[in-house]
Amino acid sequence: MLNFTIILGLTACYFAVILGFVLYARFKSTNRLLPGLNEFFLAGKNLSPLVLTFTYIGSLFSTFTVLGMPGLAYTHGLGAIIFYMLLHSFGIILFLMIAKKMRAYAQEKRIFSPLEIISDHYQSRKLGLFIAVIFTLFLMPYIALQLVGIGVFIHSFTDGAVTYVSGVGSMLMIIFIYLFLGGMRAVAYTDFIQIAASLLGLIAGLWMLFTHFDLSFLSVIDRMNAVSSEHLTIAGAKGTYAWPFLLTVSLVTASIYLQPHILTRAMMAKSDHHINFMVCGIIIGFLLTATLALYYAFTLYLAYGTDLEPNFVMGHVFKEIGTWGTLGLVISALMLMGALGAAMSTADSLLISIGQITTRDMVRPFFQMTPERQVILSKAVMISVLIAAFITGLKPPQFMTDLAVYSAAGGALMVPTILSFAWKYRSTMAAYLSISLGLVALFTAALYKIKTGNNIAGLHIATLPVLISFMIYYGVCLANKTKH
To answer: Which domains does the chain have, with CATH numbers?
Structure first.
């Protein structure tokens, strides 16, 4: 408990230093303490390529990357890692197909939201509102899941000495302060430092585990093959990742690369070269994190067998390493700071995205508002959503994780509309029909899974709904063939 108190104190200091640096840099360049519209949503579009790349990586690598992936690989083995790498590979392709077009258009028209670009190209404010409402509903469970995840982790890490309300309440206060004073720039610098802290801590932590258990990179694989060869198969130890499911779950989940808070990073870039830099960074990032997750999972499996709870695998690592002297405490602090920073950064990014969507895509197209009032409204919306997420986390529903899965699946239904925003045959009617009927198909597939406990034909639950969405969109567009 004492160690955790020290770590929490270091984490609080770390957040305070970042916020202080952001406020100083803003006041020095703009002579104002609070962020304006461009600063609040897009960090003034003047971040360095390195910081921009790190915030892009941070927006994609949430607490799941630090805490969840090693647990997933601990349970399923190599198949979980292949899923992780495939989803990022497919996602990067989707991102590159539209990121540069969006950046150029946003710079030309002085646009602050990705969905503004969609509604502008389709020449339909109502379509923009329709997509904004759906995205907002789909993003909200992720915020609650971040708080629930970090709350459960803190409670487990301290053996119940720190309650959910105490642990997450502290994070909530930090997020409140960041929302009011920091804006997107604070999120970007937090991403930069938490990614660096996470990677440094994870690499050093793995080295300590190897030393403690007398293992090496090569010996881990050899011994794992002898102990549980199923962990080295693509399908995994439980046969979950058979090829039909593996491919479809990777393709559907890759749609996160087209979510508003990710596309906003493309709009923050000064040039196409910066976007190329971002993509190179994410490739290095997912290869490195996949390798670390695999070796953490296998090392812990060899050391503890099946005794660990998969959801708390990394919590056990933090606790163990924190007891191995001063160096262990420092490394554990770095790892935990990275995990807490990832949770806060992800929550902040999603909240700013929801505030951006509400203000720029739901309200501003229909009511005139000054930039100052847009920022105030965004903050009010974000605080309301954050409080709702916190209350939900006090007693999360049993289907909380399933809800997040369905939310990600729902976002995938909008891929055809977003992907084809600059296509000459794009159609507003096709967008409405593909999203609406895709939602109906997703709801039907969810009911089927609830009733039978199985996915249709062993595919991911959103596979057929997304396929229907693509077929309807491009079928309607090609049937009309009205050039824009």
So the answer is: 2-398 (1.20.1730.10), 423-484 (no CATH)
